[in-house]
Structure formats: structure tokens, C-alpha cells
Amino acid sequence: MSFEWTIDQRFDNLTLRSFFAYHHLGKTLIHQLFQERRIKVNDKIILHDHLFHTGDFLWIDFQKEEDHQIDPTPIDIVYEDLDFLIVSKPQGLLVHDDGISKTSLTRRVNHYAKTMGYHHRVLPAHRIDKETTGLVLFAKHPLSLSYLSYLFEEQSLEKIYICEVRGHLKDDEGTIDLPIARDRHENKMRVDKEGKPAKTYYQVIEKKKETSLLKVRIFGGRTHQIRVHFSYKGYPVVGDDRYGRPEPDPLKLHFESVKFIHPRTGQMLEVSTKPPFMNP
Description:
By secondary structure, the protein is α+β, with helices and mostly antiparallel strands. It has 3 domains: 60 residues, RNA-binding S4 domain (Structural Genomics Hypothetical 15.5 Kd Protein In mrcA-pckA Intergenic Region, Chain A), CATH 3.10.290.10; 79 residues, Pseudouridine synthase (2-Layer Sandwich); 97 residues, Pseudouridine synthase. The strands form 3 sheets. Strands 5, 6, 7, 8, 9, 10, 13, 14, 15 and 16 form a 10-stranded mixed β-sheet that branches. It has a 4-stranded antiparallel β-sheet with strand order 1-4-2-3, with no helix packed on it. The chain has a two-stranded antiparallel sheet with strand order 11-12. The longest helix has 13 residues. It starts with a strand and ends in an 8-residue tail after the last strand.
């Protein structure tokens, strides 16, 4: 597949390497692109020290990939442009293939991408648990994938979740700042002073008879962070058999919204989708 970009004033008088650095593209791929002469500006092959000017037309050939497994099941597209495809994941579906399941969100997204003429794999920049619903961000090419991956690693985007927990919290808003580590004896995570930093800010949206609906923003992005923090405080997420108690309800945890600077426009992009367990 080919990548196209019209250079704006942000990259005027900057080199191609600076452009790649802005997207945090890996050195190995950059070297390969130069070696195989797969980069053009204004229809001419260029070198890494080429200086851009506003209005230049950048073209990169990322080449066609081998065929990969796909699934024709429809997807719920929340946002799409030249660089990103953001979808809402249903409950009970894995983001990535696990070698056992016959389907995954990635397979479904790539079937859609193939029907739209994309021949490069469209890959997720992050994951959410199988039972968690909500947003999953996919990248349409290596530049957008490296950019998004960096934002997630550096916590440079805003992630908002909606969840329902058992009980009523003492305060209507607050922060849980407790490190999280992998439990050595069980297949789950736990609060541990030797763990990695994790901070969870919450705000009560609604108090029900036996539960509370919360808006949650996480800092750290540790595995099962929201589930671990609220379970530790005595307010397990409804439907959480692993950190709470066995119950018939599905897990009520939803990745509702994300906000970040779009690399192509330089403007803030905000995308959201409503939780399936909230009233219309």
C-alpha cells in the first residue's frame, strides 16, 4: 500500500528523518525504506536529509503484505480517516488472535479493510480485555501504528472508561493511587507495593440501589487496572468473576472515549461510544 501526505507548515524546512521521528517510526523500517528507494517527494526518489517545504507531496510505498486470516462478521465503526480506524468492540471478543479462537476483532477489521482496498494489515495499537466493551484504535499504516503505540506507552492520550461497581463509594470523586503487580500464585494482577505505578481517577455518575455508575480515567494503563483498584477498595466491577464474586451479570466495564492530537492535522481528536449497559 502507499502512504500519501501533503506537507504543512509544521514540517517546513525539516528533514524526512524529523518527520519519521515525529511519528516514532522504528529505525529498522526507516533503513529498509531508504535502502529499497520506496520514498518519493514530488514524484522524485529522495535521501534521508531531504528538506521539506510546505506543499510538498510525500509518497511512501509500504508494499503489499502476505494474505492473513480474516472474518466477514460486520464491525461497528465509530471513526475512520486516512490514518485510523476506531471501532467499538462487543463483549466476549478478543482483540488479537490467540491461536485457539476462530475469530477476533483484528480479523474482522482486516476483512473490512480488504473490501476497502487496503492490502497492508490494519493493526490495533492497544488491547482491551475480552469481556470489556468499547473503543479499540486500529492503525491503517506503519506510521500511524508507531504514532499511536507511542501515545499509549507514554500515556499521552486521554482514556475515559465507564463502569458499574458494587456498593456506594464514600466520596463522589477521588483517586486511587496504588501500584499493581502480577500475582505470582494466580493468573491475575494485584495491588503490590513493589508493583508498577497506577493511578485511577473516578467520578460517580449515578447511585443505584446496590451499585454505582462511575466515570473513570486511568493513568498507567496496567493490566486490569480498573478492576484491581476497585476490587481492592471493596467495590468490585459488576460481573467481574476474577476480582469480585461469581455472578450472572456480564462485566460492566466500557472504554468510552479517547482524546489525542491527530498527527496529520495537528488538531485534537476526540472519539466516544456509549456503554451497552447505560440507559438510552
